Amino acid sequence: QMIMVGEQSGEVESMLKELAEYYTTDVDNTMKNFSTIIEPVLILMLGVGVAGVAMAVLVPNHDLADEYVRRFESAGVARAPLVSGIENAA
Length: 90
What we know:
Elements: H1 2-9, H2 12-74, H3 81-89
């Protein structure tokens, strides 16, 4: 419609410049809003990833420590040496 009005008035060039400015501003505003919205989402995704890596490291260590204690208890040792050493240090 804007181009048609420009053709009828003989101002096509100025009308096209006006449209270009409008759409440039519109795209700039949209991109600013998009980056504002996407930042918290990326931070949450990174947090979930870091938590996943932390769990992947800590859970096997916890299971390994439990297995260590179980093996010493099944062998008839009252306390596993490492565990009793930690308790005595505290």
